[in-house]
């Protein structure tokens, strides 16, 4: 290619890099704003997105999650946009490094999720089951979260109804939660065993497996964008030496 063609190609990729990272920057700002809104005025969030968001809001802590993701996107978008605009090798290399770290973390998380699903279930059982025995049935947020989750997901406990054996709820009501018996009364051990409602962990895993194709496609798309962003930033970085 002639020097003019090379310069035109460089300029085109530079402009695309700026636009791409500007979109990332704006997306990060939006997520950060929503995260702050959730933390400051969570009631409005619940009113808009419904009752199910209550369990999500407390279990996943949506506000902090959005703030963290938004802040990361802001930093990434800023580094990429300014690095391309100012033609700064330092900013471009920093952008490349940050995206590479995120990419490696995502791959590691995917491997852990695939390999250690059984371990995750064991750990959750060891942590959550004692809480169900001690706190479920006590008026408050914990009971409300589990009631909403079990009703919406059609599940019972973390593993099944036996999670409530020797629990505060069973000692108080002499029965299992109605969700463990498909909302039939009296929810005793015989009816709970007959209805055999699955635990919430298994139900959530089943939902993930059902939508694995969609989740995998989204993950592959994100990974492809990250690889493309790293390739473009490295191309601009290397081309700066030739200018």
TrEMBL record:
<protein>
    <recommendedName>
        <fullName>Tetraspanin</fullName>
    </recommendedName>
</protein>
<keyword id="KW-0458">Lysosome</keyword>
<dbReference type="GO" id="GO:0005886">
    <property type="term" value="C:plasma membrane"/>
</dbReference>
<keyword id="KW-0812">Transmembrane</keyword>
<dbReference type="GO" id="GO:0005765">
    <property type="term" value="C:lysosomal membrane"/>
</dbReference>
<dbReference type="Pfam" id="PF00335">
    <property type="entry name" value="Tetraspanin"/>
</dbReference>
<dbReference type="InterPro" id="IPR018499">
    <property type="entry name" value="Tetraspanin/Peripherin"/>
</dbReference>
<dbReference type="InterPro" id="IPR018503">
    <property type="entry name" value="Tetraspanin_CS"/>
</dbReference>
<comment type="function">
    <text>Structural component of specialized membrane microdomains known as tetraspanin-enriched microdomains (TERMs), which act as platforms for receptor clustering and signaling. Participates thereby in diverse biological functions such as cell signal transduction, adhesion, migration and protein trafficking. Regulates neuronal differentiation in response to NGF by facilitating NGF-mediated activation of NTRK1/TRKA receptor tyrosine kinase and subsequent downstream signaling pathways. Plays a role in the inhibition of TNFalpha-induced apoptosis.</text>
</comment>
<keyword id="KW-0325">Glycoprotein</keyword>
<feature type="transmembrane region" description="Helical">
    <location>
        <begin position="12"/>
        <end position="38"/>
    </location>
</feature>
<dbReference type="InterPro" id="IPR008952">
    <property type="entry name" value="Tetraspanin_EC2_sf"/>
</dbReference>
<keyword id="KW-0472">Membrane</keyword>
<comment type="subunit">
    <text>Interacts with SLC19A2. Interacts with NTRK1/TRKA.</text>
</comment>
<comment type="similarity">
    <text>Belongs to the tetraspanin (TM4SF) family.</text>
</comment>
<feature type="transmembrane region" description="Helical">
    <location>
        <begin position="58"/>
        <end position="79"/>
    </location>
</feature>
<keyword id="KW-1133">Transmembrane helix</keyword>
<feature type="transmembrane region" description="Helical">
    <location>
        <begin position="214"/>
        <end position="238"/>
    </location>
</feature>
<feature type="transmembrane region" description="Helical">
    <location>
        <begin position="91"/>
        <end position="116"/>
    </location>
</feature>
<dbReference type="InterPro" id="IPR000301">
    <property type="entry name" value="Tetraspanin_animals"/>
</dbReference>
